[in-house]
Amino acid sequence: INGYKNLCQHDQIALMKAGCTEIIILRSVQTYNFERDFWSIVKDSKNPTLIKLDALKPSLRPCIFEAHKRFMAQIGHEWDNNLDILNLLSTIVLFDPNRPNIIHKDMIA
């Protein structure tokens, strides 16, 4: 993304640190099995690792887990095969001028 390249390194790092988790959550819909509620992580073509959605439950606050579960069930299924939407949403998440430690908020906006 040219706009990202034009930012100072400090702002690039601040945006990436703040938005990384959200972008990973958005992108996770690509490997999610919506019928059986698990992610299939391919390490090699013969042995994918299956991670159930419920595996997140012990490590997240209940409200965060439930919000993520709703996201996967309601929204994620519509976007899982649409890379254009995922790329646009990832860009919107990345270029949030309200992130902490941003120097040039006006350029990001």
UniProtKB/TrEMBL annotation:
Record-linked PROSITE patterns: NR_LBD
GO molecular function term, any single one: zinc ion binding
Biological process per Gene Ontology, one example term: negative regulation of transcription by RNA polymerase II
Alphabetized UniProt keyword annotations: DNA-binding, Metal-binding, Receptor, Transcription, Transcription regulation, Zinc, Zinc-finger
Domain NR LBD: 1-109
Highest taxon, organism lineage: Eukaryota
InterPro entries assigned: NHR-like_dom_sf (IPR035500), Nucl_hrmn_rcpt_lig-bd (IPR000536), Nuclear_hormone_rcpt_NR1 (IPR050234)
SUPFAM superfamilies: Nuclear receptor ligand-binding domain
UniProt cross-references to PANTHER family, sorted A to Z: NUCLEAR HORMONE RECEPTOR, NUCLEAR HORMONE RECEPTOR HR96
Protein name: NR LBD domain-containing protein
Source species: Medioppia subpectinata
Source organism phylogeny: Eukaryota, Metazoa, Ecdysozoa, Arthropoda, Chelicerata
